[in-house]
Amino acid sequence: MEVSLSSMEITLTVAFVCFFLGGITAWIFLRKRAQKTTQTPTPRDAPEHAPKHAPKSTQKSVQETPQAQQIPTQAATQAPIEALGPAQGPAQAQQAEPPQPHAPTWHERLVQGLRRTHGQIFRSLDEVLLSKDAKVTRKDIFNTLFEALVQADVGVTTSELLVEKVRTKLPAADSTNFDAIRKLLKEEILALLNSGNNVPSTIESNTNNPHVVLVVGVNGVGKTTTTGKLAYKAKLRGEDVAIGAADTFRAAAVDQLRIWAERAEAAFVQLKPGSDPASVAFESVKIAKAQGKKLCLIDTAGRLHNRNDLMAELAKVRRVIGKEITDAPHEVLLVIDATTGQNALQQARVFREIVNITGIVLTKLDGTAKGGIAIAVVNELKIPIRYIGVGETVEDLEPFSSAEFVDALFEN
Ligand SMILES: Nc1nc2c(ncn2[C@@H]2O[C@H](COP(=O)(O)OP(=O)(O)OP(=O)(O)O)[C@@H](O)[C@H]2O)c(=O)[nH]1
Ligand SMILES: [Mg+2]
Q1: Atom 17 of ligand 1, residue of closest alpha carbon
Q2: Structural Rg of the chain based on CA atoms
Q3: What CA–CA distance (Å, rounded) separates 333 from 295?
Q4: Pairing mode, if any, of strands 397-399 and 385-389?
Q5: Can you list the alpha helix ranges (DSSP code H) found in 237-372?
Q6: How far apart are CA 345 and CA 380, in angstroms?
Q7: Nearest ligand, CA 340
Q8: How far does residue 220's CA lie from ligand 1's centre (Å)?
Q9: Mean per-residue pLDDT for 210-238?
Q10: How far apart are CA 232 and CA 312, in angstroms?
């Protein structure tokens, strides 16, 4: 049987075979592509630029650490100073902050701190003047004012001076005018404070590197706290600080100061307990100089001004500092506890003689009705008050301003 295919049939057969083979090839190609895109990558598929030598731990944290842990918290990146308050991570920071209680301003702190002194000065004067007693004479009023000032620790000499000034300036017609007396008294106290405080402090503005400040005073007046607060304030101004722990009597004193040094990120210089305080002071200045610190604060042990041996020791501390930097210490701050009373004047006189104090820090004004000591100190010693303290926190110590002080004293 003979099979003969026409040319038309041959063409159709070839076309069919080609179409069939083409379809199979296309199907295989598409399938391979689909497999490639869905395949789980194997280590060999990792891109060429992947870090080959990354430490195992890093790789692990990137890959396995939950998202929240991969964001470095502020606590982890912050300097120790932040340990003062609760550290906040970014996630917490985004949360709506609860309304913060109003932090008192310095003026409010000062007004609060001087409240009892204000009461001491004005309570009795108020009573006399507001009694509207026809028998009250001009003399009675000035006697009352004098007594009130002495009670507030303005001191006899300074109180007499102030009363005399008010008496001379008060017109006869205003003899029982409370506002007129108050206004004149305020002006006279301000004038007196201004005259004694006309030498500006060099702690905030000076060209010394380092600026050396020696902190002295009797026991428990607030020397260490003041040193710490000053260091912290300097840090906030962006200054590098060194602190010398020249109170070598008590180990606890060194620990107390070290905490402040950590907060202020200051270099901390200490020697073994019982070491010569002069050696600590010398080393502190030397280190502050070598490390390019802006401020060098030296805390000393409390000492009674009538102990000659201790005062001689302090004189040595001062002398030795001068061996490292000729004109240092640039400031010698005498810390006075405002609750001490008139004895503070005697302390200041002796300390001035021994170590030539350049300024006074008046602390604990918040704990007394005798803040008038500030006026006595300036008038009778002619030593400027550099700072005043109205509490234990760092915000409670500020440079002294006569105008701020008088405003706060009269505002209560
Ligand atoms: N209320 C009040 N307390 C203060 C003030 N300044 C310091 N203090 C407190 O007074 C106490 C004694 O302060 P320190 O700084 O240790 O006194 P110090 O002069 O170094 O004491 P010694 O080294 O022992 O001589 C501490 O409890 C301070 O917190 C202030 O302005 N107001
Ligand atoms: Mg101390």
Answers
A1: 222
A2: 39
A3: 14
A4: antiparallel
A5: 251-263, 277-290, 308-324, 343-355
A6: 8
A7: 1
A8: 6
A9: 96
A10: 30
Q: What are the structure tokens assigned to 91, written together?
A: 């996630």
Q: Got the DSSP string for 4-41? A: ---HHHHHHHHHHHHHHHHHHHHHHHHHHHHHHHHSPP
φ, ψ dihedrals at 152, nearest 5°: -85, 10
Per-chain residues with Cβ under 5 A from ion ligand 2: 223-224, 253
- Separation of alpha carbons 364 and 392, rounded Å: 8
In angstroms, what is the span from residue 160 Cα to ligand 2's centroid?
36
Distance, CA 130 to ligand 2 centroid (Å)?
A: 46
Q: What is the pTM of this model?
A: 0.76
Q: How confident is the model at residue 20 (pLDDT cuts 50, 70, 90)?
A: low
Phi, psi at residue 238, to the nearest 5°? Answer: 90, 20
In angstroms, rounded to a whole number, what is the distance separating the alpha carbons of residues 332 and 322?
A: 12
Residue that the structure tokens 């106290």 belong to: 189
CA distances from 302 to 119, 232, 354, 360 (A): 31, 21, 15, 15
Query: Would you call 361 helix, strand, or coil by DSSP?
Result: strand
Q: Which atom of ligand 1 is nearest to the CA of 220?
A: 21
144 Cβ contact partners less than 8 Å away, ≥ 6 residues apart:
124, 125, 128
Q: Is the pLDDT of residue 55 over 90?
A: no
Nearest-ligand number for the alpha carbon of 363: 1
Ligand with the closest atom to the CA of 392: 1
pLDDT digits (tens, 9 = 90+) for 295-352: 999 999 999 988 989 999 999 999 999 999 999 999 999 999 999 989 999 999 999 9
Q: What is the C-alpha to C-alpha distance for residues 176 and 10, in angstroms, rounded to an integer?
A: 138
The answer to whether the CB of 271 falls within 8 A of the CB of 288 is: no
